[in-house]
Amino acid sequence: MQPSSCDTFVALPPSTEGQRIIFGKNSDRPCDEVQEVVYFPARDYDPDEKLECTYIEIEQVAHTHAVVLSRPAWLWGAEMGANEHQVCIGNEAVWGRESADEEEALLGMDLVRLGLERADTAEKAVDVIAELLGRYGQGGPCMEDECGFTYHNSFLVSDRKEAWVLETSGKYWAAERVEGGYRNISNQYGITTKIDKEHPEMREYAQSKGWWDGKTEFNFATVYSYLTTARIESAGSRYCEGKKLLENRNGHITAEAMMDVLRDKDSGINMEGMFMTTGSMVSVIPTDPALPGVHYFTATPDPQRSIFKPFVFVKNANPLKDTSSPSFGSNDPVKKKPRFQSKPNRKHPLFVKHELVAAIIEFYKDRGQKITEGMRQLEKEMMKEMEKILQRGVEVPDLLVNLFSSSVQKEMSVYSKS
């Protein structure tokens, strides 16, 4: 398995328009994997309750925040998502000097969900992930397969005022605060000499391994990566291409601009092949705490052939049934040991419809163009409606309890007409 990963982006004022933070991510995963979009309301728990993550059981907390997640349908965690406090998190696979562990622990995707459920700011989410990393470790297969595909993780975390980059190697980590401009992460280390938080033994460990002499300025990417900082910057990678795409829109980055970045195939950001973009997310977070955030998800592969559909946190929001995959409970092959002895059909209703339409777009040019035009028109109409909410706030919350689900129904209606 060749190392492949995702791309996550954040833009903050002054690089954005309208005093907003724009977060975006493509989740690049095996091409046959289904990604679902699910909502979990806030909950309180009894003392001593346990939590079953993808592979291991951990201590539950007294209260979890409401979250909306885009996740591979076979696991507990998430590739990306947001919570009711407008914290957004996406993770990346990274490979460096330290080997990734096949022993079952928390997946990076578990840490994404745990950070969202347990933190009401970006900085607190960094602290939550770092604490869990030290307590339980990271490891285990990252695909629904016996191939032993493993990796360490980096995270991009944002809220209404700032963003954080958190990069890990085993239990060691470094974090950098981003207070303005734009930032992207891909499947390589990117934190250099600006380190705002770190594992207390991170430098000592690097020195003990002979990666750092203890005298020169400490550069996390150079010390923990195979690549020097210069090689990382000069590599013709998706990281560099993503950085250029943000730079080209600097000062005018909007939700639409971020969607354009995620749809870009020439850069490789919209990935095709055995690893492809299986789900995408764009969030618009006003810096004004009185205004709601709007979180757009595709729940389908290839954002070029998908519609970004809006979700807004309101009380009594309903489950997202059309983008929820079948549940197999204790009979799920992921839960049984040895794991991954079979692969059940995890396709949710929207995925099934989209799969057919994607094939039509691929093989019938004229018909496919009409379908794509219909999809884009619907997306524009929905974004126009969301702009009113972003400017005025939520006036009647009950009208938004089915916002995402009704948007999915409109999408499927476009498919049916086609």
UniProtKB/TrEMBL annotation:
* One annotated GO biological process: proteolysis
- Compositional bias of type Basic residues: which residue ranges? 336-345
What domain of life does the UniProt record list for this protein's source? Eukaryota
- Give the molecular function GO annotations: cysteine-type exopeptidase activity; dipeptidase activity
Which PANTHER family does this entry report, sorted A to Z? SECERNIN, SECERNIN-3
The Swiss-Prot or TrEMBL record describes its family as follows: Belongs to the peptidase C69 family. Secernin subfamily.
Name the chain's protein.
Answer: Secernin 3
Provenance organism: Kryptolebias marmoratus
